[in-house]
Amino acid sequence: MNKDQVKGTAEKVKGKVNEAVGRATDDPAKELKGDLQQEVGQTRNDVGNAKEAAKDAGKH
């Protein structure tokens, strides 16, 4: 697991929390922020996965 995967996962978790808080408090802006954080986190996680795959392919 590389730093992009870790940071991506952390960002997704923060996004889920913000989304849940936004729903619970009826705050659409907070909910949207959470959705966006989750997307950013997923993208960063995908970059990390691609790096890992490239590294693994280089070993073979």
Distance separating the two termini: 18 Å
Structural domain tally: 1
Shape annotation: rod-shaped
Quaternary structure of the protein? single chain
The total strand number stands at 0
Radius of gyration: 15 Å
What is the helix tally? 2
The overall average pLDDT, rounded, is 96
Q: What share of residues are in beta strands?
A: under 5%
The helix/strand class is mainly alpha
Order of helices and strands: HH
What kind of sheet is the major sheet?
none
Question: Unreliable segments (pLDDT under 50, ≥5 consecutive)?
Answer: none
Helicity level: over 70%
Region (Disordered): 1-60
Biased composition (Basic and acidic residues): 1-17, 24-36
Protein name: CsbD family protein
Family: Belongs to the UPF0337 (CsbD) family.
Give a written overview of the molecule:
The chain is mainly alpha-helical and 60 residues long. It has one domain (3-59). The chain contains 2 helices and no strands. Helix 1 runs antiparallel to helix 2 (28-59). The protein is rod-shaped and about 50 Å long. The protein starts with a helix and ends with a helix.
